[in-house]
What does this fold into?
Amino acid sequence: MVRPISTEVQNSIKLLLIEGLSYSAIQKMYPNVGLSTLSRYKRKFLGDSTSPKGGKQSKISTQTRNYIAKNFQNGSLNGPKGVQSYLLTHGIEMFLRGIRHVLKSEGFKARRKVKTNFVNTTNKRKRFAWVKKYQHYTVDDWRKWGFSDETRINMWGSDGKSYY
It folds into this structure.
């Protein structure tokens, strides 16, 4: 049978848990108390309060992340390189890999921006009139036509991706 812990030790552990000390720090003070005992006491004394997430803290604060996301959407910051130069002006040195990870966690995806034609009201009217004029053409009639979409084909790789 396991020996019970004295009430003095229980009260001191309770105070340390309320202060927010980690389990390892408490174990250094009381080496005979196990992790399961500490977690059980935490549940008993503090309820189901969530413990802080472990791991390394981010170099970028939440305010800076929000600023980067806002300026990324409106086009002020141009890609991860633009974010890197912005962070350097604020004294934060980060690799591009980390910046890409931050952008992905903010919901941005790297993909080529689709260019669309600008269609104003006069062009809309002209296009609609053209469609009305040729709406009764058959497949054989359309085979007489030749359309050129002026597709650009890269031989030596892509021109890069933009985040949006």
Remarks:
- The chain has a mean pLDDT of 83.
- The longest strand covers residues 110-111.
- The chain is about 50% helix and 0% strand.
- Helices lie at 7-19, 23-29, 35-46, 62-74, 79-89, 96-105, 121-133, 139-143.
